Amino acid sequence: MTRARTDERSELDVVAILCLTPSLLYVFFMFIYPFLYGLYVSLQPMKARSWSVENYAAFFTDPYQYATIGTTFALAIPNSILVVLVALFLAYGMRRGIWMERTITTILVLPISLGVIFLSEGILGFYGTNGWLNQMLMDAGLMTEPLELTHNFIGVILSLFMQQFPFCFLMLLGYISGIDPSLESSARMLGATPWTVFRRVMLPLIAPGLAIAFALVFVMSFAVFPSAVMVGQPAGTTRTISIAAYQQAFEQYDMSYASAIAVIMGFCQLAALIVIVLVRRRMTIATTMGVGKR
Amino acid sequence: MSDSINQLRVDITKRYGAKTVLDQLKLEIRGGEFVTFLGPSGCGKSTALGIIAGLIPASGGEIWLDNQRIDHVPPEKRGFGMVFQNYALFPHLTVFDNVGFGLSLQHRQVAEIKERVQAMLGLVRLLGFEDRYPAQLSGGQQQRVAIARALILHPRLMLLDEPLSNLDAKLRVDMRAEIKQLHSKLSLTSIYVTHDQAEALSLSDRIVLLRDGVLMQVGTPQEIHDRPKNVFVADFMGFRNFFDVRLGQSMGGLIEGAGKSVKLRARAADDFAAGNDAIMAIRPEDVRIGKAPDGVNRITGKVEFIEYLGREQEAAIGIDAETRLWLRTSEKVALGDSVELTLPPEKIVLLPVD
């Protein structure tokens, strides 16, 4: 009896490993190998010709370089918060379906299909100094000076928001509408107002989805490159870490230094993800305390 | 919040677009009563419950609780308790926090919450389960948590939406008894929704039978069971044999009905006069094997089909090429047997033709 069971078990493991192989290969060749190769390159500086942390030292002693970490965080954090909050608000409102839902969802999701370059061109045309918005405002006599909405921090936020909102919205909408509606009904029957239902029942249940959405938006924002160049100020306020890496690689032709910057960028993202996971755990504990100190 | 009500008066209509799912459902429920909304799926029973709860807006009509009109009061202000088909326990909260949820919303003292939750868990026999999460409980335990969570607020009216339909057959019977005991202990005014006639019969003071949003019959379990008003109610309550007949003269309290293949006598009733068409119905379990002493309503036929039900079996008896009679018996019958049957006149109900 037990013998038969162990046989069955090992047979299953072989099948499981076989089924896993393609994805394991993918993860290895597309992620682990490039990452390790990048790490290796970054530790072989051009001048040194041997193992050295010279590139990392150079990065962290040069304010022009290490300031890009702060700049990138300063863009990615507010943008992620903005995207997730707006998406949460809309998705929560639409969780039980609304009038013209398909049309509205299509409009909200459309920017995803446009591509960053086209979107950035559009932002320049509409929000630019001589763009439609400023022309309208000035012709209407509401403004005397054009609003500075592009080639700065705001321009990048606008662009990032438009790229990331649709996907964050869809993700949260799927997550929230998957929550059993009778939970809401039962909370109402127990005396909870709609706001209390959100705070005490729905928010704790949405929290895991919210954390994942935030993490993904954050990682995407942190790697911002085209928007930062096209609608930002790549030499100044929006000189993000990816721009620093790009300049080392394709302007200075120092692949090793560029790899080091890329590795630093990766570790920043990893650190942020760890913080998100920890915060989310704290949140769960806080909300599940519920009735309180017993 | 008061613990008891004298009367709930309901007169509600619900339409979804052009479809009417509840057509002027008028009801009066007395304090302490256990009323069941019974009907097949899609008959509007759950919609009616949702409207009374305040979770679904009615398209028209009014709901009065004693002297207060409540149809525009939001659900959280009605003071009703509700138990859902899937229990709807909060998965992120422990049993204790689920049961204490309503009290904590009322900002009660921690000590009071603790005491009342413990008392409630004792009532539903779940002491010691305080720190479990809903996912760690069995279906029956989850159901008891759901009931405790609603009861702890002393609701004025308890609404139960098919609370037993997700449980397996044996547990369902146990929980049914438990609900019955809780109700008689607390004499809580309750509305219970189900599609299971056995549940309705065993639990209710009164049954409200619905079909396509229209009220078919209201009555005590006995009335509904013994004296259905129409073919739908009869069919739903387990009558399986229906004969289209033309009524003849009544003699000695019995009225004769002549159908295509049978001639039967039933108890005479006021609404059914000679010369009219009617339907005669009898339950399979009321059909007897063998000759009646007085020789009334005797039928012979051949066993065509047998369904084994354990203690009993249900058999289809072919009377002629088109007519079958269903019979439930604990006696042995075999396929192809020729049997002699008696349909006791007092067990036959007369129903109007639709």
Largest sheet of chain B: 6 strands, mixed
**How many helical stretches of chain A?**
12
Strand order of the largest sheet of chain B: 6-7-8-3-9-10
User: Helix share of residues of chain A?
Assistant: over 70%
Oligomer: heterodimer
Helix content of chain B: 10-25%
Arithmetic mean of pLDDT of chain B = 92
Structure summary, number of beta strands of chain B: 20
Give a quick account of the main beta sheet of chain A: strands, pairing sense, barrel closure: none
Task: List segments of chain B where confidence is low: pLDDT < 50 over at least 5 consecutive residues.
Answer: none
Helical run tally of chain B: 8
In short:
The complex is a heterodimer of chains A (294) and B (354). By secondary structure, chain A is an all-alpha fold. Chain A contains 12 helices and no strands.
Overview of this protein structure:
The complex is a heterodimer of chains A (294) and B (354). Chain A is mainly α. Chain A contains twelve helices and no strands. Chain A has helices spanning 2-42, 54-61, 63-93, 101-109, 116-127, 132-139, 153-177, 181-189, 194-222, 226-230, 241-250, 255-288. In chain A, helix 3 (63-93) packs antiparallel against helix 9 (194-222) and helix 8 runs antiparallel to helix 9 (194-222). The radius of gyration of chain A is 24 Å and the shape is globular. The radius of gyration of chain B is 25 Å and the shape is elongated. The model of chain B has no long low-confidence stretch (mean pLDDT 92). The two termini of chain B are 47 Å apart. The relative contact order of chain B is 0.12.
